[in-house]
């Protein structure tokens, strides 16, 4: 299996589904519908939906059935990018190689487009098409976990502590809190969503949880490293912004080589967590390796 081909196939599936599920750009009121689609369809690796689909496949789930819920993860991720780029937060001009949503549509529309994407995610998670495919109890559990992850117990909590830590020297446990909540939580939930909707047993959910925790933290450490060493063209956004904003990052706290070592250790833990699945887990194993070797 070639990982790039696999990722492209899954990305195409997700992109086509997102286009079907979202209100058309021409639908009234056009400004918000265009703004919701602006960054959503400007590229992006679709890592979170791909993780949900791949984890689901690993435990015998049906990709088509899981697809709408996987798309909901991308809507939440995109909302977080739009809001994170706002002047009140990172004040970025470019995202996925395009002008950020507030630069293109104005701040009010960007705030509302982010809100609409977050809300749309929960509509999708509970839509008729999904309700008829999964037992209500499993679905409610998944929706509850996604809500917790998007809220102050997850992404928002990490984002708040990140903002409040700017310009301060923080200790490694607090940095790990920021990273596991701001970024790791949604990655972990993506894997667990796929596992649960795919019908995983308790042992499989446990193993995939350990996998998701490891790649979630590794992903953000690599994001920190790319902000130091990355290339603007490859990333579609500017590197060097963390240092300018005095952000709490792994390279700042531990140095570049120690941060790389930490990310590699986490990927080794992710691989280990997949051992009970044998070669069936090769895709997830390769995705973990991709997380640390990525250039964008
Ligand atoms: C709720 C406003 C708000 C923020 C939560 C996730 C987050 C915190 C902010 C998003 C901004 C950001 C740069 C987070 C750090 C890591 C990250 C999620 C990078 C972008 O994710 P990728 O690399 O991006 O998966 P693509 O474009 O490929 O989807």
Q: What's the count of strands?
A: 2
- What's the gyration radius in Å? 18 Å
The largest sheet, given as strand count, sense and whether it forms a barrel, is: 2 strands, antiparallel
Instruction: State the name of the first-level CATH class.
Output: Mainly Alpha
Integer count of domains:
1
Average pLDDT works out at: 95
CATH architecture: Orthogonal Bundle
Helix content: over 70%
**Classification by helices and strands:** mainly alpha
Major sheet strand order: 1-2
The parts where pLDDT drops under 50 for at least 5 residues are none
Shape: globular
Question: What is the third-level CATH name, the topology?
Answer: Farnesyl Diphosphate Synthase
Proportion of strand residues: under 5%
Name a few traits of the molecule.
single chain, two-stranded antiparallel sheet, 73% helix, 2 strands, Farnesyl Diphosphate Synthase, binds geranylgeranyl diphosphate, mainly alpha, 296 residues
Protein architecture, described:
It is a single chain. The chain is built from 16 helices and 2 strands. With 296 residues, the protein is mainly α. The chain has one domain: Farnesyl Diphosphate Synthase. Strands 1-2 form a two-stranded antiparallel sheet. A hairpin with a 2-residue loop joins strand 1 (94-95) and strand 2. Helix 2 (30-40) packs across helix 6. The longest helix is centred in the last third of the chain and has 28 residues, at 202-229. The protein starts with a helix and ends with a helix. The model has no long low-confidence stretch (mean pLDDT 95). The site of geranylgeranyl diphosphate has 16 residues, from helix 4, helix 9, helix 10 and helix 11.
């Amino acid at each position: 299996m070639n990982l790039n081909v696999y990722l492209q196939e899954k990305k195409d599936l997700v992109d086509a589904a997102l286009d079907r599920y979202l209100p058309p750009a021409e639908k009234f009121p056009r400004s918000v519908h265009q703004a919701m689609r602006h960054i959503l369809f400007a590229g992006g690796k679709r890592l979170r939906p791909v993780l949900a689909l791949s984890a689901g496949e690993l435990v015998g789930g049906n990709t088509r059935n899981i697809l709408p819920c996987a798309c909901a993860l991308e809507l939440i991720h995109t909302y977080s990018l739009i809001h994170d780029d706002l002047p009140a937060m990172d004040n970025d001009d470019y995202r996925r190689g395009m002008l950020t949503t507030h630069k293109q549509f104005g701040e009010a529309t960007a705030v509302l487009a982010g809100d609409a994407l977050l809300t749309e995610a929960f509509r999708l998670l509970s839509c008729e098409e999904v309700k008829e495919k999964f037992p209500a109890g499993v679905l409610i559990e998944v929706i509850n976990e996604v809500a917790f992850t998007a809220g102050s117990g997850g992404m928002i909590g990490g984002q708040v502590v990140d903002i409040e830590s700017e310009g301060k020297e923080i200790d490694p446990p607090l940095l790990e809190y920021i990273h596991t909540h701001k970024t790791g939580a949604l990655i972990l939930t993506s894997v667990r969503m796929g596992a649960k909707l795919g019908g995983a047993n308790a042992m499989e959910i446990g193993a995939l949880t350990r996998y998701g925790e490891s790649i979630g933290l590794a992903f953000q450490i690599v994001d920190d490293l790319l902000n130091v060493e990355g290339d603007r063209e490859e990333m579609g956004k500017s590197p060097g912004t963390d240092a300018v904003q005095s952000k709490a990052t792994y390279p700042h706290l531990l140095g570049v080589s120690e941060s790389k070592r930490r990310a590699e250790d986490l990927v080794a833990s992710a691989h280990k967590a997949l051992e009970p699945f044998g070669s069936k887990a090769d895709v997830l194993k390769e995705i973990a390796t991709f997380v640390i070797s990525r250039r964008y």
